[in-house]
Amino acid sequence: MEWLRDALWLADAVIFGYFILINTSYLVLVCVAAFDFFQHLRRAPFAGADDMFRSPLTLPISVIVPAYNEGAGIVPAVQAIMALRYPRFEIVVVDDGSTDDTFARLAAQFDLVEVPRVVPREVHFTGDVRSVHVSRAHPETLVVVRKDNGGKADALNVGINVARCPLLCMVDADSVLDTEALLSVAKPFADDPLRVVATGGVVRIANGCRIVGGRVVEVRMPHRWLPRIQVVEYLRAFLMGRAGWSRLGGLVVISGACGLFRRDMVVEVGGMAHDCIGEDA
Predict the structure, then answer these.
(1) Same domain flag for 42 and 85
(2) SS3 of 18-69
(3) Cα distance from N-terminal residue to C-terminal residue, the chain
(4) Residues 32-61 pLDDT 10s
(5) Radius of gyration of the chain from Cα atoms?
(6) Does residue 273 belong to any structural domain of this protein?
(7) Same structural domain for residues 34 and 132?
């Protein structure tokens, strides 16, 4: 039994050391992020969001929304994106072979008409494109592409090929964006256009919050404990953790829920990888 006690003692030491190291790293990231957050608060009143909104030189953005069986919420999601505060942007919804009424709801709400548009292959995609549609009332703002199912990465690659703007914002169909979201994530591109290739937003849990018209009008904690723990984990991982890594120059992942990229660089690396467990990674 002596060897068993030694093995258990060694396992205890390894587990204890692991938790000491990982929680110490979390604490360091939180401290670094807190310092960066206070600097952000000091800069916020002088960030120039209003100047960006009024400037004709602000780079336009293509917002790519991959959708698969999102009929229940796709119309409010697109309406919320169309109401974002940004001077020039287009919305590219890619219906990735949905088997529900996703496209039917979009067609009815936005009066879609099919157009003879050829989708280039600057980046590779596998699912065949069935048709391209635009809104009769907003042909320059809303484009809907129907394709065979190929997964989220494949849908994003089709959206990249269809997009016409120099910046690409990739957003999940069930995400709720802040009104100033595009202005916030586009600001670093205006500040340092030669070096900045990607920016990301803070992802938070909306469970328990009151949402009206695609906008969070009241922030509340969920009633159940499991979603509450998820809220705290997202604040640690996305707000504090990634802000800390960004400050240290070690941010290697932009969240798939909301990220802004330079289109030329995305095309240069070949678009989103099909063989990765998460296309954002």
Answers:
(1) no
(2) HHHHHHHHHHHHHHHHHHHHHHHHHHHHHCCHHHHHHCCCCCCEEEEEEECC
(3) 46
(4) 988 888 887 887 777 777 778 888 888 999
(5) 21
(6) no
(7) no
